[in-house]
Backbone:
């Protein structure tokens, strides 16, 4: 995704909030908390966290689930 972005372009992504990694209901998930996600992208040159926030799931019956939302920005490496 980094290579597809123009300079100063943004990427939005979200993950279930937590530290679980593995299969749930036949699908593979990687959950994140803020510190773990920052460590994951630290080695990626030219990408920085613009904004990070946690929201609750709005779907019925899932009000206990939270999501880590992240806005990343591509920076020039000049």
Residues:
């Amino acid at each position: 995704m980094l290579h597809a972005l123009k300079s100063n372009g943004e990427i939005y992504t979200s993950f279930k909030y937590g530290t679980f990694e593995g299969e749930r209901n036949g699908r593979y998930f990687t959950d994140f908390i803020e510190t773990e996600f920052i460590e994951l992208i630290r080695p990626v040159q030219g990408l920085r966290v613009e904004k990070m926030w946690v929201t609750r799931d709005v779907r019925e019956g899932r009000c206990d689930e939270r999501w880590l939302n992240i806005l990343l920005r591509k920076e020039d490496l000049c």
Observations:
- The CA atoms of residues 21 and 30 lie 4 Å apart.
- The longest strand covers residues 47-56.
